[in-house]
Predict the structure.
Amino acid sequence: MKGSLRKISTSISVMAGSAWAFMLAVLGILAWAVSGPFFHFSNTWLITVATITDVIIFLMIFSLQSSQNRDSKAIQLKLNELIIADKQASNEFIGLESLTDEELSELDEEFKEMLGKMNARPALHKLHSKIKEAKSNRSSVH
């Protein structure tokens, strides 16, 4: 059963994320809208599209969550492998995904403190500084 669910959810995720699926959805909505005058914009006409979309959304939630869970687990395993392979990395970080939200917040605060003590700036700030510097160099040349 698990193998079948995995295959089905992977196939659905791939198909749902395609341009063809988007175009099919757009065409379906257009066909529904164009058919409105034919059905005199009746309650049945409204309920039909609502029911169809509700059923599709309901099934997609479980399918996509299954794919997301599998992807997250694979990423965690890859990260664990990198931690184990790097002699300088702390093996204590293996399995952090099993910590509570409070424990993860505490760990995050510890890292923020360590970063502050190192007087280091996050990579985004460094990149932003480099971009500003490059822009000022270009404008001073012209």
